[in-house]
Every structure is written in C-alpha cells, then in structure tokens.
Design a protein that fits this description.
This protein is an all-alpha fold and 87 residues long. Helix content is 68%, strand content 0%. The protein has 4 helices and no strands.
Length: 87
C-alpha cells in the first residue's frame, strides 16, 4: 500500500531534484521516494552497529592530531592557500 506525503522544497532544491531524476530517466516522485527509502535503510542498518577497529583508529588519530595542534580551521586553510597563490 502506498501513502502520499506532501513535502515542500525550496525552489532551488526542487530544481536540483528534478534535474537529477531526469538525468537517470526516473519520475521525480519515484526518485525522491527511492532516495528516502535508501536513506532510511542505511540509517537502520548502521544504527547501533559497533565501530570497526579501523574507524576507532581513525577517530583516535584525529583526536590526537587535535590535541597536538595539527588541525586548523577551514578559514585558516583557505587563508594559507590564498597566500600561496599570491606568491
């Protein structure tokens, strides 16, 4: 059984959804329903699942980098890149 749910989108988002659906030859309503179902399935599949050893190692490495001051903000990274481009 199907149920219709009306969801308002900003005009730019609606345009992007229509273009994406058209690119793969799918009606926009089916495209949105498929995307929503995929999101829900992914979310349910990962809810409560334990992190892998690799994921834990990556998190720990990131936290260590932050403690050691090896992480900078996006703004700082952009400023450094801009400075390199003007040299």
């Amino acid at each position: 059984m199907m149920e219709t749910i009306a969801v308002p989108f900003r005009e730019d988002a609606a345009d992007r959804l229509k273009r994406a659906a058209a690119e793969i030859g799918m009606p926009v309503d089916e495209f949105i329903a498929s995307a929503a179902e995929g999101f829900i399935m992914d979310n349910e599949a990962h809810r409560g699942s334990p992190l892998s050893a690799d994921q834990i190692a990556q998190i720990e490495a990131g936290l260590a980098a932050e403690r050691e001051g090896r992480i900078i903000s996006n703004e700082e990274a952009e400023a450094r890149l801009a400075a390199r481009r003007t040299r």
